[in-house]
Write a structure and sequence with these properties.
This protein is an alpha+beta fold. The chain has a domain at 8-31 and 59-190 and 249-274: 2-Layer Sandwich (Chloramphenicol Acetyltransferase), CATH 3.30.559. It has helices at residues 16-24, 42-55, 61-75, 123-137, 145-155, 158-170, 176-181, 253-268, and strands spanning 8-10, 32-40, 81-84, 87-91, 94-101, 110-117, 188-192, 213-217, 221-228, 233-247. It is globular and about 60 Å long. The mean pLDDT is 90.
């Protein structure tokens, strides 16, 4: 309460404009900025093929995107901020949430996974951690603690309880145990629309919780591209589009732009992620 939270620390040294912004836009969906990123899949395909051939490791686009986003947040800590009750906080950990289907059929159940990282993981460690969680949660009989919390909320007076949870969260008294289970209290929420053969989307960020970034990766397809600007040579490439929605109250445009250029550089060269980060960059106080 009064600015203290179990999942973050109040940021006090921010410039006046950024401090004023949450009062102008008090809700997260007031402050949504949407961008679409076109990812040429050639580098990812080559990396996936190389790892399968040389190391018998089966990478996916999702492995690469999550590893790249994890590294980007570790190097650009303002992306890991969140705003609640008009206050700006820096998150204590790097967490990524995503949803997996237990089977690719209409009536299959979904399971929400929230993973915690220290930010130094290389792409191999990230893949290992993801695969372990996905395997545990895609079994038809699996039922994790986040699923259990969601089910409990459906059997109590939902309107009252959800309203109470929002009030508690706003005032910093939501129990740490619930924050740890909530997929909405996370650094990044990612949805893999490619897995269900859908195009990218701009997914809203939730007013409940603390998610400041939502990434929706879509189905790849071949599109015309410029191969050589000087010779005006046109060709085709497999392009995957990703919709990214960010809460603009956590950082300024230049910082966000530089951060996403880092992300795109890593996706275009996944081998850069093979080296573990010695230490993540800490946010200012």
């Amino acid at each position: 309460m009064f600015g203290r939270r179990s999942d973050g620390v109040l940021v006090k040294t921010i410039d006046p404009i950024m401090k004023l912004t949450p009062h102008i836009m008090p809700d997260r969906n007031d402050a949504q900025v949407m961008s679409m990123y076109e990812i040429n899949c050639k580098a990812m395909d080559e990396y996936i093929f190389k790892q399968r051939k040389e190391n018998q490791l089966r990478f996916s686009y999702m492995h690469i995107l999550i590893a790249a986003m994890l590294r980007t947040v570790a190097l650009h800590p303002k992306l890991n901020r969140f705003v609640i009750n008009r206050r700006v906080y820096k998150r204590n950990t790097i967490q990524i949430s995503f949803i997996v289907k237990k089977a690719l059929v209409d009536n299959a159940e979904e399971s929400t996974i929230k993973m915690t990282f220290d930010g130094t993981e290389n792409i191999f460690k990230t893949k290992e951690m993801m695969d372990k969680e996905i395997e545990a949660n895609t079994k038809t009989t699996s039922f994790n603690d986040t699923d259990a919390l969601a089910k409990w909320l459906t059997i109590v007076p939902m309107r009252f309880v959800v309203g109470l949870l929002k009030f508690m969260d706003k005032h910093g008294i939501l129990p740490k145990s619930i924050i740890n289970l909530s997929p909405f209290h996370t650094s990044v929420f990612l949805t893999n629309l490619k897995s269900i053969k859908m195009n990218y989307a701009y997914h809203h960020i939730y007013n409940f919780g603390s998610t400041s970034i939502f990434v929706a990766m879509g189905k790849e397809k071949y599109e015309p591209v410029v191969l050589d600007h000087d010779e005006e040579k046109i060709g085709s490439a497999k392009i995957m589009k990703a919709g990214v929605v960010i809460d603009e109250r956590i950082c300024d445009g230049l910082y966000y732009g530089n951060s996403m250029r880092e992300f795109m550089k890593l996706v275009a060269n996944p081998a850069l992620l093979e080296v573990s980060l010695e230490k993540k960059i800490e946010d200012q106080k």
